Amino acid sequence: LRGLDRRGSTVRWSHDVIDRDALASLFETTGNDPAFLAELIDTYLADSVALLESMRQAVSDARADELRRAAHSLKSNSATFGAHALSELCRDLEYRAKDGVLDGAAERITAIEDAYASVARGLRALAPST
Amino acid sequence: MASRGHLLVVDDERLNRILLARALTLQGYTVDTAETGNEALALLRQKRQPAFDVVLLDVLMPELDGYETLAQIKANTALSHIPVIMISAVDDMDSVVRCIKLGATDYLPKPFNAGLLHARISASLAGKRLRDLELE
Questions:
Q1: CA-CA distance, A70 to A63, in Å (whole number)?
Q2: What is the H or E stretch that residue B31 is in?
Q3: Residue B78: beta bridge partners?
Q4: pLDDT tens digit string along A53-103?
């Protein structure tokens, strides 16, 4: 993995949009296997695109429950990779949707898409196979 | 190495299924996964396969959510003894209380801490094995 410098148990990550400690913990939890982490990142990126599309569709269909579920999933998945700022944006949207609030959702999704783009760039820089 | 126990991970997000299966397998458990509550209930009701020792159950899922899946497990006398640990990014206390009232053994947050998860599963397994011994 590019950007990963392993010396003994020390792991260094090169992108600030991602919490390095969280990602290092994920790496350790999954067996310190760069190939597996690269696959996991691929899965996250592919699923995130689908979830962002689901969010847009849910707003278009005025389906607050679907919006809540998609925002919840992207919140959880992003937190797993230490993308805390992105996760917080999703959390805000999730709780508004839980209360049935769709006003301002489109603008919030735009902010989530922007944050996601930064996270995706950071993760792709770490994983050459993506 | 003998398996520490047979776990069923229930989560609609494939990322979580992959991640939990990997982490728990590395910890020495045998892991099966289900994508929906209905699939989980079907696996739990199968008599041919070895029984599950612990269920790890997500809360927010389409169709049959974690609450309803949990309620159906606990309402089934053949399954109600299996410890169910909720593992969810739903972080409000109402959800925690609801699950404990429905019979969940524990409620852990996502992203999960591998050490805490292992400790909670170990405690659930110890309780279940004590109960199984008492019934023998």
A1: 11
A2: strand B30-34
A3: none
A4: 999 999 999 999 999 999 999 999 999 999 999 999 999 999 999 999 999
Is B23 touching A (CB cutoff 8 A)?
Answer: yes
Task: Over range B14-19, report the average pLDDT.
Answer: 97
pLDDT number for residue A127: 67
Tallying the residues shown for chain B, one arrives at 136
User: Whole-angstrom Cα distance, residue B43 to residue A62?
Assistant: 35
Token pair listed for B111: 């992203």
Nearest residue in A to B115, CA atom: A29
Contacts of B15 in chain A (CB under 8 A): 40, 43-44, 47, 77, 80
pLDDT exceeds cutoff 90 at B26 = yes
ipTM: 0.88
In this predicted structure, the answer to whether residue A6 has a pLDDT above a threshold of 70 is: no
The partner residue sitting opposite A72, judged by closest CB among B14, B18, B60, is: B60
Strand partners, B54: B7
| B13 vs A contacts (CB less than 8 Å) | 47, 73, 76-77
A31/B26 CB distance under 8 A: yes
Structure tokens at B67: 């609450």
| B30-34: strand order across its sheet | B30-34, B6-10, B54-57, B84-88, B106-109
Q: Above 70 in pLDDT, residue A14?
A: no
Question: For residues A117 and A45, is the Cβ–Cβ distance under 8 A?
Answer: no
